[in-house]
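Hi R.,

As promised on Friday, here is the backbone we talked about, encoded as structure tokens. Could you run it through your design pipeline when you get a chance and send me back a sequence?
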């Protein structure tokens, strides 16, 4: 199991809009590694984006690389994850972007902010699962459990003592920072007998709207306000994240082997004429293949 600093999910990274972020990644595992900052607009800093063999070669065992970028025009919730094969199934964590100093949220100030990260758990080595799929040409085995903040729900045998619980106070407003770090599944999220007010999606504020259920796709992030019930002290409400089960299905190729057959494309953006329209040269410590 590959993690960041021995934590699963990985440690929370907090910055403000306009901050320069400098993160040194040291690879202590046997796998090649790269880290993708999912949703960050890499303006003039494409070398820090992270997709292996696209913007950089991976960080090899024993090597390190410094990701250096500035957050411009974004505030809200994003996340980071490994971008080599299926290592992202366990290597991920929240990336929280606060507004600039002295700038308030455009909605009610929450009593507390809570990251909620959805994931998938495999009892087997995820790298072995995708390797088998590539060898056979078939689809990879599905995950054994869905997780919230790294912990499985009450439907699984292993979860009796390790289900995620969110303790709240009556009549308070909480900002839930929802992140879908699952590999392939859209998930429906809801809380029994409560409504959710959507205020942000993918680090962009949206016009608030109220709903009972949120559909969040893989790689998507959404901020919602939860107003707890004022007259139910010591009550317990179920928090639920579930995949598609019935209804209309969206069919598309999602086998990684097909990308090796050519079902992929590259988007090339050339430099512009102005200084701020040119990609900066790669850093000296960019990993070599």
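Update: got your reply. Pasting your designed sequence below so it's all in one thread:
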């Amino acid at each position: 199991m590959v993690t960041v600093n021995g934590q699963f999910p990985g440690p929370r990274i907090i910055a403000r809009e306009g901050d320069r972020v400098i993160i040194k990644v040291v690879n202590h595992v046997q796998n090649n590694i790269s880290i993708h900052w999912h949703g960050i607009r890499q303006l003039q800093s494409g070398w820090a984006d992270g997709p292996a063999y696209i913007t950089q070669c991976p960080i090899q065992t024993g090597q390190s690389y410094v990701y250096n970028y500035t957050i411009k025009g974004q505030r809200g919730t994003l996340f980071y994850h490994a971008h080599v094969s299926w290592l992202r199934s366990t290597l991920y964590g929240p990336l929280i972007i606060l507004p600039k100093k002295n700038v308030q949220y455009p909605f009610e100030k929450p009593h507390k902010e809570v990251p909620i990260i959805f994931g998938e758990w495999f009892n087997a080595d995820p790298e072995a699962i995708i390797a088998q799929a590539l060898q056979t040409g078939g689809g990879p085995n599905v995950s054994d459990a869905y997780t919230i903040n790294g912990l499985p729900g009450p439907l699984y045998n292993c979860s009796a003592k390790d289900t995620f619980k969110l303790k709240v106070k009556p009549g308070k407003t909480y900002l839930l920072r929802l992140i879908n770090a699952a590999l392939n599944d859209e998930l429906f999220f809801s809380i029994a007998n409560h409504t959710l007010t959507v205020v942000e999606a993918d680090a962009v504020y949206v016009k608030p709207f109220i709903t009972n259920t949120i559909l969040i796709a893989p790689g998507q992030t959404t901020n919602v306000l939860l107003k707890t019930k004022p007259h139910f002290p010591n009550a317990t409400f179920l928090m639920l994240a579930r995949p598609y089960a019935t209804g209309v299905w969206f069919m598309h190729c999602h086998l990684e082997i097909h990308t090796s057959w050519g079902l992929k494309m590259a988007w090339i953006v050339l430099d512009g004429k102005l200084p701020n329209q040119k990609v900066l040269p790669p850093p000296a410590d960019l990993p070599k293949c």
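One thing I noticed while checking it: The CA atoms of residues 27 and 130 lie 22 Å apart.

Thanks again,
M.
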